[in-house]
């Protein structure tokens, strides 16, 4: 889980690692920031790809739980990582 205070804007980095220690290239990556209470997408866009690291900048607009859904492509595969995000008003979740 990643913790945010309301009003913060931060980079979220996702490092992709091959469990089989094989070489690979991430060809594209995108994200959706989904508010759990309404199941609606608050923000979406393209991730910056730096080798095997995906860089996303998000700024959740409301207090509560979110899911940061990162979708990326390696060769003929489309893979998805879901990251829990908790936004609080005064630093307490």
Could you name the key traits of this structure?
93 residues; mainly beta; five-stranded mixed beta sheet; three-stranded antiparallel beta sheet; 0% helix; elongated
Please describe what this structure looks like:
The chain is 0% helix and 63% strand. The protein is mainly β and 93 residues long. It has a five-stranded mixed β-sheet with strand order 1-8-7-3-4, with no helix packed on it. Strands 2-6-5 form a three-stranded antiparallel β-sheet, with no helix packed on it. The radius of gyration is 14 Å and the shape is elongated. The model has no long low-confidence stretch (mean pLDDT 95).
Query: What is the string of helix and strand elements?
Result: EEEEEEEE
Q: Count the strands?
A: 8
What is the radius of gyration computed over CA atoms, rounded to a whole number of angstroms? Answer: 14 Å
Portion in helices:
under 10%
Low-confidence blocks of residues:
none
Distance between the termini: 11 Å
Content-based structural category: mainly beta
Q: What do the pLDDT scores average to?
A: 95
The outline comes out as elongated
Number of helices: 0
Strand content: over 45%
Largest sheet: 5 strands, mixed
Strand order of the largest sheet: 1-8-7-3-4
């Amino acid at each position: 889980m990643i913790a945010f205070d309301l009003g913060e804007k931060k980079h979220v980095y996702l490092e992709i690692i091959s469990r089989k220690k094989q070489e690979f290239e991430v060809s594209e990556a995108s994200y959706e920031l989904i508010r759990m209470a309404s199941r609606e997408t608050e923000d979406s866009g393209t991730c910056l790809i730096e080798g095997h690291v995906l860089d996303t900048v998000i700024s959740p607009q409301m207090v509560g739980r979110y899911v940061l859904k990162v979708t990326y492509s390696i060769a003929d595969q489309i893979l998805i990582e879901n990251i829990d995000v908790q936004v609080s008003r005064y630093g307490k979740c």
